[in-house]
Amino acid sequence: MQPKFKIMSNRTFTMIKPDATTKGYTGAILDQIIKAGFKVKAMKWIQLSEEQAGLFYDVHRARPFFQELVDFMISGPIVAAILEKENAVADFRELIGATNPAQAAEGTIRKLYAASIGENAVHGSDSDENATIEGDFFFTKLERF
Ligand code: GDP
Fold it and tell me: Is the dihedral of CA 34, 38, 40, 42 positive or negative?
């Protein structure tokens, strides 16, 4: 039998991408995330290998921009984090804005800090299921609380 209500997760996963970390926006972006009510449950500052970036974006492997995306994601360090808040996935997508910063709403992180559809400053999970998969990709149980 299906459960009557879908249980909503209160966690999402984010990365501050290499364009933003190398331009020195990490602190300002984290500040905006925390002021929006998200609590950091896990965090690390790392540089991805080509294989790791390809695996993370495996769903986009057939897209024409896949190699460009991988090359960009390994071009500098990223900050990966698990964030907690009620309605985390939807609220975080609203906070970061549209994939293309030209279409992102005023005040969103991508509007403020992203340069293009590819180099768009931050990642935010698009579903509860992917938030769990993506968080598990980066963090062991010991690295989160
Ligand atoms: P998101 O969920 O808003 O991050 O967007 P998608 O899941 O559609 O795409 C994943 C990531 O691929 C985006 O955040 C971009 O970094 C990159 N991307 C998407 N579309 C393009 C594109 O047309 N060109 C390039 N170079 N990168 C893209």
Answer: negative
